[in-house]
Design goal:
The chain is α/β, with parallel strands linked by helices and 342 residues long. The chain has helices spanning 10-21, 35-44, 71-74, 90-97, 127-134, 149-153, 167-177, 190-212, 217-237, 248-259, 264-273, 278-285, 290-305, 310-320, 325-333, and strands spanning 2-6, 27-32, 60-64, 80-83, 104-106, 140-144, 158-163, 182-187. It folds into 2 domains: 2-188, 3-Layer(aba) Sandwich (Rossmann fold); 198-334, N-(1-d-carboxylethyl)-l-norvaline Dehydrogenase, domain 2, CATH 1.10.1040. Bound molecules: nicotinamide-adenine-dinucleotide (NAD) and SN-glycerol-3-phosphate. Belongs to the NAD-dependent glycerol-3-phosphate dehydrogenase family.
Length: 342
């Protein structure tokens, strides 16, 4: 296959490396928006800024610059376009790609922050809603699931989920990435996969905070379990299938992100527990932590649908500075008793 990966952060680079190493013999181009970054990567055969220590295989080609600087001309020859920008870069990238019939997969995990919607709207959108709005004719889907970039790039075993309503798009994602170290499962529940991938980031901030405050392993397990209930409630209200949330993009990604110290979202929670401000926490990461930008939208959409999400509500209050960490714990523990399955 001919594959173009747009966005040379940690995850775009890891996915491009993985696809280039696939015995399928794919031709892979990794596109960085900064031409200097593409040149540096081509010279050093390493993405020193975003994924240091991983040699870039010879089969991986590096390009950079404005999209009209060759990228758009290359699109019609591709078999799959992978958009590896954060959610904030999805809308402009889809606008550029409208009109193509090449299958498209986005990797971002989040809901648009309201400021990214580009117009006055009651709340931010999920990735597939952004696509429906700006480029409805595209054949597209999401590649998601529990996957730290460093582990995928090192060839450590990983399972992903390729979600699209279009079977050809799912097939293209599987063909591009399924291989000796990556298993890719198909799922036509795009809504469920996107909700799982977005909301687990918000909940990982909560578990990072709980662990940073030394609340204990019981607290962590409680947050993960009740957090999964929040994900499933919101997902079902948005039209997802409940069983998606016991899968890779639900339970799988929540457990990984909430417990794995490679997670940037979990790290935000740990840093807040140390008393750092949100700005300091975000600055010190050097990478995007989508939960910070998605939390308010997730909460707004839940409110709009009448879905109860108390952990998410506390994360929003913490990020806004309206609650201190210990007050958030007291607020959650002080809630009235209720049935587990309600
Ligand atoms: N890193 C992981 O392990 C991992 C795994 C799965 C999914 N993801 C998701 O993939 C997406 C990208 O994450 P990452 O880890 O590669 O982030 P990163 O912080 O490592 O890199 C972000 C990249 O996107 C570019 N970028 C930033 N804002 C942009 C914009 N507005 N338009 C275009 N490009 C922009 C940056 O230049 C950089 O190349 C996120 O949504 C993240 O949740 C990450
Ligand atoms: O580092 P995080 O918190 O953005 O999580 C990375 C991946 O989404 C884990 O699947």
């Amino acid at each position: 296959m001919k594959i173009i990966v747009i966005g040379a952060g940690a995850w775009g680079t890891a996915v491009a490396v993985s696809a280039a190493r696939n015995p399928g013999g794919h031709q892979v181009v990794l596109w960085a928006r900064d031409p200097a970054q593409a040149e540096a990567m081509a010279a050093a055969r390493e993405n020193a800024r975003y994924l240091p220590g991983i040699p870039l295989p010879r089969e991986l080609h590096l390009r950079g610059g404005a999209p009209d600087d060759g990228l758009l001309a290359a699109v019609p020859q591709a078999d799959l376009i992978i958009i590896a920008t954060p959610v904030a870069g999805l809308r402009p990238t889809l606008e550029l790609l409208q009109g193509t019939d090449v299958p498209i997969a986005w990797l971002c995990k989040g809901f648009e922050a309201v400021r990214d919607t580009g117009a006055a709207r009651p709340f931010g959108l999920m990735p597939h809603e952004v696509q429906r709005q700006v480029a409805p004719a595209l054949r597209a889907g999401a590649l998601s699931g529990p996957s730290f970039a460093q582990e995928v790039a090192r060839g450590q075993p990983t399972a992903l989920v390729a979600a699209s309503r279009d079977a050809d798009v799912r097939r293209a994602m599987v063909e591009a990435l399924h291989g000796p170290t990556v298993r890719v499962y198909g799922n036509d529940d795009l809504v469920g996969v996107e909700v799982g991938g977005a909301v687990k980031n918000v909940l990982a901030i909560a578990t990072g905070l709980a662990d940073g405050l030394n609340l204990g392993l019981n607290a962590r397990a409680a947050l993960i379990t009740r957090g999964l209930a929040e994900i499933a409630r919101l997902g079902v209200a948005l039209g997802a299938r409940p069983e998606t949330f016991t899968g890779l993009s639900g339970l799988g990604d929540l457990v990984l992100t909430a417990t794995g110290d490679l997670s940037r979202n979990r790290k935000v929670g740990l840093l807040l527990a140390e008393g750092r401000t949100l700005d300091e926490a975000v600055q010190s990461l050097g990478h995007v932590a989508e939960g910070v930008y998605s939390a308010r939208t997730v909460w707004q959409r839940a409110q709009h649908l009448g879905v109860e999400m108390p952990v998410t509500e506390c994360v929003v209050a913490l990020l806004d500075g309206a609650l201190k960490p210990v007050e958030a714990v007291a607020a959650l523990m002080g809630r009235d008793p209720k049935g587990e399955l309600l």
